[in-house]
């Protein structure tokens, strides 16, 4: 928005993008063409009875293309926004991880970030009470590395089979097409390991003030390797430099803008107010993993910060808006399986399922060549695959390079890797309903004000459930803390009306 200081100085870049566009050019940007490049001449052929519509290439193409504008929205995280920027290393961790993006203090790696709510449909509100996605694509010189995380440090389950049930229970009721709090509370009370995460969702974390005030967490703990082949484990925390801030349910209800978060993100970046985060890691050794009295890979839990304090690695800055939302944000495809040399996948069933099913989702949503779409291209490295053909864009389709392996004709060869992943012997916690961390969160990490808001939000939502699940919820809350249980039970009995957040 070079014209900020022009006569349009007081306009808002988010609302007036098109006016700014006009200011940049003295006249039309060029002659309209068909998509095959032929110039289009002005003609009233569309209204004249004396001209065959079929002869009007431009009109026929426009109408047919309009019919094909939509692609499937993401099955979850459909509503979101994104921006571009960079990650810059501020602390040396080469003794822990050899990945090229960490190779030197000061090194910058371009990134794309997409923020999203989990349950809203594509046209839904930014302000729903929900967890938020915080997905980062690092375009490293050794390929793309994706952290596909959330704004809560834990997930609802560690069992991949729970995921489709979670999505069905929390998204719209298939009969009424309405959000159904009866199914939400049924799911949550039948899968109590998810209550830890939902204390945050019903607490202040459930409606961020804006994306710049929202933290991100990898949740998964990645095995990483240094140049000597030694393994460590990293859990990523992405903490906003402007602090974590939230909206209360009441504040959110008073905002009518469905695109509130996305508008602020776009406006701030356009005005040069770039959101930034500090990226930290919790570092564990193999001994830490083996000797921990808990399962460090349990995604419904957090790794205690007092045992494994945060260590800074770098800054994340978003300084560029997408030029075209569909091209740059709707088409971006994240996959936890996008890993780079030195960073490996978490050895859990949940991570393995995510590796497979995000790629599957991208094949479905964007087609076989989704990694050749501009925003997904690992453009800082040469890609030499043995894949060929398929739904466009095939780009140069790997030109004339041999298309099978092994071959005797100088086709690409794998590189030698020191890391030899073995199946890890991880002790899984046989007791899934472990409420210790939820209790710790409720008692020690929430202020009394936040506890009161949490209870009010739970009561308001749980009131719309059935007595069976209300009873189950009150009993489970007792295991987290008697105070939580008693106050929720009192709230359910009281005859006060309340309005849910959007
Ligand atoms: C078995 C467990 C899970 C499955 C099968 C699953 C599946 C999916 C699918 C199919 C999508 C849509 C992908 C697309 O169309 O591009 C998605 C999006 C997403 N998921 Fe998951 N998910 C799981 C667990 C998780 C966990 C544990 C996290 C956080 C650590 C997470 C964070 C996200 C985020 C941030 C997005 C949005 C990505 C974007 O902005 O495009 N999911 N998930």
TrEMBL record:
Keywords: Heme, Hydrogen peroxide, Iron, Metal-binding, Oxidoreductase, Peroxidase, Signal. Residues 33-413 form the Catalase core domain. It comes from the Eukaryota. Pfam families: Catalase, Catalase-rel. The keyword Iron applies. The keyword Oxidoreductase applies. Belongs to the catalase family. This is Catalase-like.
């Amino acid at each position: 928005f070079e014209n900020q200081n022009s006569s349009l100085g007081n306009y808002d870049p988010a609302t007036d993008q098109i006016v700014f566009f006009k200011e940049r050019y003295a006249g039309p940007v060029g002659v309209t063409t068909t998509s095959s490049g032929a110039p289009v001449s002005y003609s009233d052929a569309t209204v004249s009875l004396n001209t065959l519509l079929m002869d009007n290439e431009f009109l026929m193409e426009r109408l047919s293309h309009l019919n094909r504008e939509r692609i499937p929205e993401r099955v979850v995280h459909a509503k979101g926004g994104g921006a571009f920027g960079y990650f810059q290393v501020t602390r040396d961790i080469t003794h822990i991880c050899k990945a090229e993006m960490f190779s030197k203090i000061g090194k910058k790696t371009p990134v794309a970030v997409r923020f999203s709510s989990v349950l809203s449909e594509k046209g839904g509100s930014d302000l729903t009470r929900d967890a938020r996605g915080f997905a980062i694509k690092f375009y490293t010189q050794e390929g793309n590395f994706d952290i596909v995380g959330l704004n809560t440090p834990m997930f609802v389950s560690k069992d991949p089979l729970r995921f489709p049930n979670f999505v069905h229970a929390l998204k719209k009721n298939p009969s009424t097409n309405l959000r159904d709090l009866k199914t939400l509370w049924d799911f949550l009370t039948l899968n109590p390991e998810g209550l830890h995460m939902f204390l945050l969702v019903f607490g202040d974390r459930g409606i961020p003030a804006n994306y710049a005030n929202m933290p991100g967490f990898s949740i998964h703990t990645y095995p990483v390797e240094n140049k000597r082949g030694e393994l460590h484990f990293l859990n990523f925390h992405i903490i906003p430099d402007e602090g974590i801030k939230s909206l209360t349910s009441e504040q959110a209800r008073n905002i009518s803008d469905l695109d509130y978060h996305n508008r602020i993100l776009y406006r701030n970046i356009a005005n040069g107010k770039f959101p930034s985060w500090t990226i930290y890691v919790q570092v564990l050794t193999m001994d830490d993993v083996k000797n921990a009295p808990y399962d460090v890979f349990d995604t419904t839990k957090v790794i205690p910060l007092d045992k494994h304090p945060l260590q800074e690695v770098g800054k994340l800055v978003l300084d560029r808006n997408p030029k075209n939302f569909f091209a740059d944000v709707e088409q971006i495809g994240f996959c936890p399986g996008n890993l780079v040399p030195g960073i490996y996948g978490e050895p859990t069933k949940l991570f393995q399922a995510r590796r497979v099913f995000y790629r599957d989702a991208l094949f479905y949503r964007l087609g076989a060549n989704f990694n050749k779409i501009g925003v997904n291209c690992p453009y800082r490295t040469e890609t030499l695959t043995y894949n060929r053909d398929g739904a466009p864009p095939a780009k140069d389709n790997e030109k004339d390079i041999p298309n099978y392996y092994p071959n005797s004709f100088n086709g690409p060869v794998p590189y030698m890797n020191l890391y030899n992943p073995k199946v890890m012997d991880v002790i899984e916690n046989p007791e899934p309903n472990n409420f210790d961390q939820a209790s710790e969160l409720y008692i020690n990490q929430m202020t009394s004000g936040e506890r009161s808001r949490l209870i009010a939000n739970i009561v308001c939502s749980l009131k719309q459930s059935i007595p069976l699940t209300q009873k189950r919820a009150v009993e489970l809350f007792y295991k987290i803390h008697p105070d939580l249980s008693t106050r929720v039970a009192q709230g359910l009995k009281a005859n006060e009306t309340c309005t849910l957040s959007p």
